Amino acid sequence: MAAILASPVVAWSQAEKTQVEQKEHGRPALVSTADLAEYEQLSEERQKLIRIAIEVAKNSPWLPYKYGGSTPEDGGFDCSGAMFFVMGKFGLEPPRTSAAQFLWLQKHERLHTVPESATELSDPSLKELKPGDLLFWSGTYEPTDGRAVNITHVAMYLGTEKTDGRAIMINATDGRSYRGKQANGYGVYDFRLPRKTSRSKFVGYGTPPGISASKAEAEKTQDPEAGSAPSSEDQK
């Protein structure tokens, strides 16, 4: 089970506050890959992506939520900045914003949409969800930048914990919780779908382009001759 790390309260300047006054929360939880039930069964590239996502949090000072932040040197991340940084360290070239990352998956036919009626992770629309996939929400705030789609939050699914099967994700946020404790910044949080009455909606998920969508696809990429028919030369 992940440990909640104690840390001093962040002192937010007025410029760093949104129009709605933010509560100050503690440092997010962390996990190791050994805590994740599905990790050993994943393809090497998915393992690497998840390992990078976790190491960014473990190897950095507390990275609070900071609008516009996309590197640890910025002193914090916003949600899409965190995913941009993690995927960049893997070697991918994602767009910068959550809306653009959503459209990136859609363009490459990697996006799985989830209906608003889905309120449990057992919903059939989530059957293709895999650790390392990006998760997208709308309605977490009111965007004013003229984005093409109303996507306002992005995270990465880590899978479930060995201890009790709890679904978790890693992202930069302020106020989401892990095991009932709210936190601020880049770290591990519970992954659950919004209630029907919630203003925010879970929109969909998918594998980042550049990562094989399945383990079989990854193995085929690593060994393009695997599964191919023998040539005439081989049969002599």
UniProtKB/TrEMBL annotation:
Q: Name all NlpC/P60 domain ranges.
A: 47-198
Quick check: keyword Ubl conjugation in the entry? no
* Taxonomic superkingdom: Bacteria
Q: Which residues form a coiled coil?
A: none
Q: Which InterPro entries match?
A: NLP_P60_dom (IPR000064), Papain-like_cys_pep_sf (IPR038765), Peptidase_C40 (IPR051202)
* UniProt-recorded Gene Ontology molecular function terms: cysteine-type peptidase activity
The alphabetical list of record keywords is: Hydrolase, Protease, Thiol protease
GO BP terms: proteolysis
Q: Which stretches does the entry tag as region Disordered?
A: 199-236
Q: Which family does it belong to?
A: Belongs to the peptidase C40 family.
* Identification of the protein by name: C40 family peptidase
Tell me which species this is from.
Luteolibacter pohnpeiensis
